[in-house]
Design goal:
305 residues; Rossmann fold; 9 helices; 16% strand
């Protein structure tokens, strides 16, 4: 005779549900731990030895005190009086070296150029990358420094990815006469979900929303900033200077739809430049000639008296 042990053996319902509960708890703990680990990795300082200034352009080493608490290290390239000045704001996990091509381009056209390392990047001090929050204070400090050094010049700023977010998340609208934003995320939730989808592909549909919500919930205790503080799209309407928004048509970190939504909120005069075929990359390096025609031309038109 065959007997059943379903109700009396080791797999009776109470033990089964305990196992399910234990597995769920363990899974949740692993997920939370994983998100914390990734968050700490992404926000870890990206310090690097930048080294000596380039020999092909005249450079002055500068140090700027920021309200973020950091001392910012950078280079100031002199320009032709009356030709205008630009501040270059680099992307996440990069430093001023990533903006050297732009510095050479604008210097060749007579602009003065300030390029520097954000807090917790390059040779600047700082404890954690904050995805635009403290970096916004750095952007404001850099503009104020250049206003002091070149009081008679009209000043523009160019921000790439994190740099663009910092330009919008400064404590007050940047005191600039022109602003170019390249591949800037609209809010930290969208930025997180987009990156999860880009890495995990089809599987991301299941995990993107809960992981994004968990990441946003962990921002305050670990970085001292909330998801509500990391919404550049809510700040773009405060910009009173002419503005140019640019992004690649194949960017899976900041979609064209998201850039168009930010552009819709911006005030006139404004321009939109969609770079055909570009992903989340250095747009100047991807298409130098088009960059001259759009970003350089925009700065010349708005900053030259």
């Amino acid at each position: 005779m065959v007997t059943s042990a379903v109700l009396t053996g080791p797999w009776r319902p109470r033990r089964f549900f305990k196992l399910i509960a234990g597995a769920s708890f363990a899974g949740a703990a692993i997920l939370i731990g994983g998100v914390i680990a990734v968050g700490l990795f992404l926000s870890a300082p990206a310090r690097a030895i930048v080294g000596a200034a380039p020999a092909d352009i005249p450079v002055e080493n500068v140090s700027i005190a920021s309200a973020s608490g950091a001392t910012l290290r950078g280079w100031l390239v002199p320009g032709r009086p009356g030709a205008g000045a630009v501040v270059l704001l680099h992307g996440v996990h990069a430093n001023r070296l990533s903006m050297l091509r732009r510095a050479r381009l604008f210097h060749s056209e007579g602009f003065a150029v300030l390029l520097f390392d954000f807090q917790a990047h390059g040779e600047s001090t700082g404890t954690r990358i904050t995805f635009g929050h403290r970096e916004g204070q750095d952007a404001s400090a850099a503009i104020a420094y250049l206003r002091t050094r070149l009081p008679d010049e009209r000043i523009g700023a160019i921000g790439s990815s994190l740099g663009g977010a910092a330009a919008l998340l400064s404590p007050a609208p940047l005191d600039v006469d022109a602003l170019a934003l390249e591949a800037v995320y609209p809010d930290i939730g969208a930025a997180t979900a987009n990156r999860i989808r880009a890495v995990l592909g089809p599987v991301a549909g299941v995990v993107a929303s809960p992981v994004t919500a968990l990441f946003e919930g962990l921002l305050p205790p670990f970085l001292g900033v909330s998801a509500a503080d990391l919404r550049p799209i809510d700040r773009v309407a405060a910009v009173r200077a002419p503005i140019l928004l640019a992004a690649g048509t194949r960017d899976d970190r900041t979609s064209v739809a998201e850039v168009r939504a930010m552009f819709a909120r911006a005030n006139e005069p404004k321009r939109l430049w969609l770079v055909e075929g570009a992903g989340h990359v250095d747009l100047e390096g991807f298409s130098p000639a088009d960059y001259r025609d759009h970003v350089l031309a925009f700065m010349i038109e708005t900053l030259r008296r």
